[in-house]
Amino acid sequence: MSQTIDAIIDEHGSVRLLRPIQLSEARRALVTILDDQPVWSEVELDEGYRAMAQDQMRETEALELSEASIGDSRDETR
Questions:
Q1: Domain locations in the chain as residue ranges
Q2: In terms of DSSP bridges, do strands 7-9 and 15-17 run parallel, antiparallel, or are they unpaired?
Q3: Could you tell me which residues come within 8 angstroms of residue 6 by beta carbon, excluding any fewer than 6 positions away?
Q4: Is 45 in contact with 19 (CB distance < 8 Å)?
Q5: Over 32-69, what HEC string results?
Q6: Which of 6, 14, 31, 65 holds its CA 20 to 30 A away from the CA of 20?
Q7: Tens digits of per-residue pLDDT, 2-18?
């Protein structure tokens, strides 16, 4: 299953993930560089991720919404 992970890339090209992740093995990754500057501080992001992880209902709703959106996009004509 694909995951989207927040990260910051500094001016030297070093990538720093803003939260720890667990992988069962090495994986490929795609990097999209956004035009905007990081808005959240690392502390605020960590606190937000902790709060989301503790809110099981919110996580379940987010998963259901994302799964429904994927189904909707399959029905669109190209």
A1: 7-74
A2: antiparallel
A3: 17, 18, 19, 45
A4: yes
A5: CCCCCCCCCCHHHHHHHHHHHHHCHHHHHHHHHHHHHH
A6: 65
A7: 888 888 888 888 888 88
Q: Is 1 helix (H, G, I), strand (E, B) or coil?
A: coil
With 0.85 as the threshold, say if the pTM is over it.
no
The tokens for 28 are 């490929």
**52 CB neighbour count, 10 Å cutoff:** 12
Using CA atoms, how far apart are residues 10 and 28, in angstroms rounded to an integer? 20
Whether pLDDT at 33 is above 80 = yes
Beta-bridged to residue 42, according to DSSP, are none
- Contacts with 40 (C-beta within 8 Å, 6 or more apart), sequence order: 48
